[in-house]
TrEMBL record:
<dbReference type="Pfam" id="PF02909">
    <property type="entry name" value="TetR_C_1"/>
</dbReference>
<dbReference type="InterPro" id="IPR001647">
    <property type="entry name" value="HTH_TetR"/>
</dbReference>
<keyword id="KW-0238">DNA-binding</keyword>
<dbReference type="InterPro" id="IPR050109">
    <property type="entry name" value="HTH-type_TetR-like_transc_reg"/>
</dbReference>
<dbReference type="InterPro" id="IPR009057">
    <property type="entry name" value="Homeodomain-like_sf"/>
</dbReference>
<dbReference type="GO" id="GO:0000976">
    <property type="term" value="F:transcription cis-regulatory region binding"/>
</dbReference>
<dbReference type="GO" id="GO:0045892">
    <property type="term" value="P:negative regulation of DNA-templated transcription"/>
</dbReference>
<dbReference type="GO" id="GO:0003700">
    <property type="term" value="F:DNA-binding transcription factor activity"/>
</dbReference>
<feature type="domain" description="HTH tetR-type">
    <location>
        <begin position="47"/>
        <end position="107"/>
    </location>
</feature>
<keyword id="KW-0805">Transcription regulation</keyword>
<feature type="DNA-binding region" description="H-T-H motif">
    <location>
        <begin position="70"/>
        <end position="89"/>
    </location>
</feature>
<keyword id="KW-0804">Transcription</keyword>
<dbReference type="InterPro" id="IPR004111">
    <property type="entry name" value="Repressor_TetR_C"/>
</dbReference>
<protein>
    <submittedName>
        <fullName>TetR/AcrR family transcriptional regulator</fullName>
    </submittedName>
</protein>
<dbReference type="Pfam" id="PF00440">
    <property type="entry name" value="TetR_N"/>
</dbReference>
<dbReference type="InterPro" id="IPR036271">
    <property type="entry name" value="Tet_transcr_reg_TetR-rel_C_sf"/>
</dbReference>
Length: 266
């Protein structure tokens, strides 16, 4: 009997080998993401298309968050029966796969003439942050064993393309992709939270007061002395805005990648 590896021990090769034995349901969901949705020019035009369903589901998510997306709610929005939705998407999970990939959209195209790799990665990170803030409900969907659609892969392709000029090998490029994407998502959490609050009608002042009250619980609590000191110590410089903080951290990430590219590898 083969011993199962812990998630921490899995390698890229393990993931590629596992792709050959993917769960049939996940394989079907992946097929739905990748199959051509362009309508045939032959015969009568269909009254309802898969893209109609996806657009309606995205509208619901934009208005009331991901929890509002149900097969029944989507069918009501488009004016068809629930069975009509199931005709294209056999499960809610398959529909969520489709709206997530559609919401991601496409990454920014490389400039002409091409910028240096660092400028392209910075533009990519800003575009992804803007996309996540425009669709804050994307953050409500935990990453699980879900298929990756063409738009998701396009964002990865853009980073790989930019880094292909650096001389890094494929393994290192994959690591740098994870570093950049991880920073972009993590450093956007607060901005996404604010965007979600705004979408629900909460004012910036109300959101800030609620966040401040939560963070303020650390003051006086012996479990969090360092965090309390961070909150109460007078700043030595003007505070950065959320966008400025993102740019500061992004520059540090790119500094690290540049140092590695220029010979600081271990």
């Amino acid at each position: 009997m083969t011993k199962r590896k812990t998630p921490e021990a899995l390698t890229r090769d393990d993931l590629m080998q596992a792709a050959a034995t993917v769960d049939p349901e996940l394989r079907r969901r992946s097929q739905l993401l990748w199959e051509d949705r362009v309508q045939s020019t032959r015969g009568p035009k269909a009254a309802l298309t898969p893209d109609d369903v996806v657009r309606a589901a995205m509208q619901l998510a934009d208005e009331d968050g991901l929890g509002a997306v149900t097969m029944s709610a989507v069918s009501t929005r488009i004016g068809y029966t629930t069975m009509a939705v199931y005709r294209y998407f056999p499960s809610k999970e398959a529909l969520l796969d489709a709206i997530v990939d559609a919401a991601l959209g496409l990454p920014p195209r490389p400039s002409e003439p091409r910028d240096d790799w660092r400028s392209e990665l910075a533009r990519w990170a800003r575009a992804k942050r803007a996309m996540l803030c425009a669709r804050p409900w994307l953050a409500e969907l935990p990453f699980v064993a879900a298929p990756h659609g063409p738009n998701w892969l396009s964002w990865s392709e853009a980073v790989i393309d930019a880094l292909s000029t650096t001389g890094l090998d494929s393994a290192d490029i994959g690591e740098m992709l994870s570093v950049l994407d991880g920073y972009t998502r993590g450093a956007s959490d607060t901005a996404i939270s604010l965007a979600r609050a705004r979408a629900r009608g909460t004012s910036d002042a109300e959101w800030a007061a609620a966040v401040g009250a939560d963070l303020g619980r650390a003051i006086g609590d012996p479990r969090f002395p360092r965090f309390a000191a961070l909150l109460t110590t007078p700043p030595s410089r003007p505070s950065r805005t959320m966008d400025e903080s993102f740019e500061f951290g992004l520059a540090r990430v790119l500094d690290g990648i540049e140092r590695y590219v220029n010979g600081g590898r271990r």
